[in-house]
Amino acid sequence: MWLTKEAVNQNIDCAGLEQAIIMENRNQNMMISHMANKMK
After folding, report:
1. Per-residue pLDDT of the chain (40 residues; tens, 9 = 90+)
2. Number of helices (H), then strands (E), in the chain
């Protein structure tokens, strides 16, 4: 839940849609990496 709130707050401050999409992709990549490391 904390990550969702943080992402929303970051997207509010983004300069535009492209920046918001870049931020979302970054967040998804971080979560995938985190989950992959937990499975090791």
Report:
1. 566 787 777 778 778 888 888 888 888 898 899 999 999 7
2. 2, 0
| Overall pTM surpassing 0.70 (yes/no) | no
CA distance 30 to 24: 10
Instruction: State how far the Cα of 5 lies from the Cα of 8, in Å rounded to an integer.
Output: 5
- Residues 27/7, Cβ–Cβ less than 8 Å: yes
**Residue 9 token pair:** 């707050």
> Residue 15 has what DSSP assignment?
S
